[in-house]
Write a structure and sequence with these properties.
This protein has 263 residues and is α/β, with parallel strands linked by helices. The chain contains nine helices and eleven strands.
């Protein structure tokens, strides 16, 4: 065979192999299926920006939910324990710390996404009570027949620290629901007078009027963070999602859902 023709054929073959490998890599990336497990606090902002991430990266994301902390089978920790698949978790720092201690998180992959304070909400149309000072908030609690709180990080803090600290724990009727969405739904249905939980779980809830943030002296500002789960099937796609959620592209959605950006 003519040496020049042989070199040309060899060069064409090499280009075909490289192009084929690149196409296979792109195909694998396009076919990536991410499993995400998220708690309620960051969920509104997350769902608002997720379609943009999927479209831009060709990655399909399947999202499940669970509480950051607490008891019961639907906490994120309990779901991971029984083998529910997840590549990424998004939850409060308190809950993430527990997962990290249990070896459920890939070291060095955790990233803070947003900060969210505690607030109060009442049923739409009901006069908003005064919660601007500790004294006013205390009286509002005492006037309420039933107060709904989540069974996760914020509810644990309220029932074990805030209400006892105010000296009224034994005077309140508190309904602890597994999720913040359930606490808000209870108020929207008229089954509780007020919900106290992260602001992001109140400002966009149907049937709820946001009253305001709790006084600074009683405040718990939760940091919501994301991390890659140990044994993730799509670790690179997981890192892409976390990077996207921590970028400026998500900032507007974070603020619209009542949270503060982590800068």
């Amino acid at each position: 065979m003519n040496p020049i023709r042989f070199l040309n054929l060899h060069s064409q073959f090499t280009r075909m192999v490289v192009a084929g490998a690149a196409a296979a890599a792109c195909s694998a990336s396009a076919m990536a299926q991410l499993n995400v497990m998220i708690s309620g606090g960051f969920a509104v902002a997350y769902r608002q920006v997720l379609p943009e991430f999927e479209k831009a990266n060709g990655i399909k994301v399947d999202t499940g939910s669970g509480a950051s902390q607490g008891a019961g089978p639907q906490t994120i920790a309990a779901q991971l324990q029984r083998g529910v698949p997840a590549d990424v978790v998004i939850l409060s720092r308190e809950g993430l710390a527990e997962l990290m201690a249990a070896g459920r998180i890939v070291a060095g992959t955790d990233v803070d996404l947003a900060r969210v304070p505690l607030g109060a909400g009442v049923r739409t149309g009901v006069p908003k009570p005064d919660i601007r000072t500790v004294a006013a908030f205390k009286q509002t609690l005492l006037n309420a027949k039933t107060i709904a709180v989540p069974g996760s990080t914020s509810g644990i803090y309220l029932t074990t620290e805030v209400f006892p600290k105010m000296g009224i724990a034994d005077q309140l009727t508190v309904s602890v629901k597994a999720r913040g969405s359930q606490a808000a739904a209870m108020v929207a249905a008229g089954e509780a007078n007020m919900a106290v939980q992260p602001v992001s779980e109140l400002v966009n809830e149907v049937g709820i009027d946001f009253v305001g943030r709790l006084p600074a002296e009683l405040q718990l500002v939760q940091v919501f963070a994301a991390a890659v789960v140990t044994g993730a099937k799509e670790p690179e796609a997981a890192r892409k999602l976390i990077q996207f959620l921590a970028s400026e592209r998500t900032g507007v959605a974070i603020e619209q859902s009542g949270m503060d950006r982590v800068r």
